[in-house]
């Protein structure tokens, strides 16, 4: 699951395109299938989102929650792909993008009535 935060006036107009870019990176780098898009957008009032100096109101936070198993090199490739594609396709500078990958062990995930360590029918590999 991916959660995206940003100032609503900047985030709302680009939600669909940003979702496409993020999922495209997930497919290219992690091999995620097309139908595994799980994005949650949190548009915020400007007074509710404080961001570091040197950033603009385009500041966007992307939190990626996933099961443990991806190599550090794979995670870094995903982050760099996000910076590159968001800049080239949406015009948001990498300085205005913050990406955090949060990993949890498979037994901490629950979906389709089972835990992640019980799932044997995933259409993608977690260990990449």
TrEMBL record:
This is Tautomerase family protein. SUPFAM superfamilies: Tautomerase/MIF. It comes from Marinobacter lacisalsi. It comes from the Bacteria. Gene3D superfamilies: Macrophage Migration Inhibitory Factor (3.30.429.10). InterPro entries: Tauto_MSAD, Tautomerase/MIF_sf. Pfam families: Tautomerase_2. Transmembrane segments: none annotated. The lineage of its organism: Bacteria, Pseudomonadati, Pseudomonadota, Gammaproteobacteria, Pseudomonadales.
């Amino acid at each position: 699951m991916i959660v995206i935060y940003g100032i609503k006036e900047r985030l709302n107009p680009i939600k669909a395109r940003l979702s496409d870019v993020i999922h495209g990176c997930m497919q290219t780098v992690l091999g995620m299938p097309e139908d595994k898009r799980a994005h949650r957008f949190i548009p915020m009032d400007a007074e509710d989102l404080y961001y570091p100096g040197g950033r603009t109101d385009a500041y966007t936070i992307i939190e990626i929650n996933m099961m443990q198993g991806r190599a550090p090199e794979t995670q870094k490739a995903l982050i760099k792909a996000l910076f590159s594609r968001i800049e080239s396709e949406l015009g948001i500078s990498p300085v205005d993008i913050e990406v955090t990958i949060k990993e949890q062990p498979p037994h901490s995930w629950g979906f389709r009535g089972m835990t992640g360590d019980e799932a044997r029918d995933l259409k993608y590999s977690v260990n990449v």
